[in-house]
Amino acid sequence: MTLSSAPECPAKIAGELAENVQYRGRKASRQGSEQRRLSILEAALRIIVREGLRGVRHRAVAAEAGVPLSATTYYFNDIQDLIADSFALFVKRSSTNLASLWSGIDEDFLRMSAAIEGNPQARRDMVEHVIELAVAHIEAKAREGDAELLVELAFRQEALTNSGLNALAVAYRNLRFHFAERALRAMGSTAPFEDAQVLTTLILRMEYHALVDGVENLDMPGQRAVLKRFLDLVIGL
């Protein structure tokens, strides 16, 4: 299967996820009401970053958002709805950003895929390109105050016990899998679906260590070497 005939590109999948995110709480009827609802959800996300899920309480969120306590209970019947909609907002915004980023990258993959046929050096160049994309992604996430990584980890944890979040969590997790599969297919992997599972696991591990150890303490040359070893084995370089 060629890259052009492969499953839908990751940018399209991310865009569709962003468009189809559903909220549980009360819908806002006016622009001012919608802005207040969003400010409450943004406040909940900030609290999750600082204190974890245990810090998300109606009173704490209202104080963080600068709104009356009655506003949080108006839009959200209970804390579970507030947490679920906070994660829904996170997924919507993150997926929108990924769709924008990946639209250009997918064009690069199409161009590189056409160039590597019978050209070992072009294949090696593409491996290096994918490694640099992965490293830049991890460094950017870890250096942006760790907020996105912390929310993502909290989201995964909450989805383990909150069945209402499970489908959204799986869809969001699969975004990076689709991207990895597309990249590996472009590089000539003979088993891109299986290889993508390993690659995404390696990147998740790198993200975790960047968060726990601090990106300044992460052995990036060593992490690059791990990715290169895996991709060399996959692509047969």
From TrEMBL:
<dbReference type="InterPro" id="IPR009057">
    <property type="entry name" value="Homeodomain-like_sf"/>
</dbReference>
<keyword id="KW-0238">DNA-binding</keyword>
<dbReference type="GO" id="GO:0003677">
    <property type="term" value="F:DNA binding"/>
</dbReference>
<dbReference type="Pfam" id="PF00440">
    <property type="entry name" value="TetR_N"/>
</dbReference>
<dbReference type="InterPro" id="IPR001647">
    <property type="entry name" value="HTH_TetR"/>
</dbReference>
<feature type="domain" description="HTH tetR-type">
    <location>
        <begin position="34"/>
        <end position="94"/>
    </location>
</feature>
<feature type="DNA-binding region" description="H-T-H motif">
    <location>
        <begin position="57"/>
        <end position="76"/>
    </location>
</feature>
<protein>
    <submittedName>
        <fullName>TetR family transcriptional regulator</fullName>
    </submittedName>
</protein>
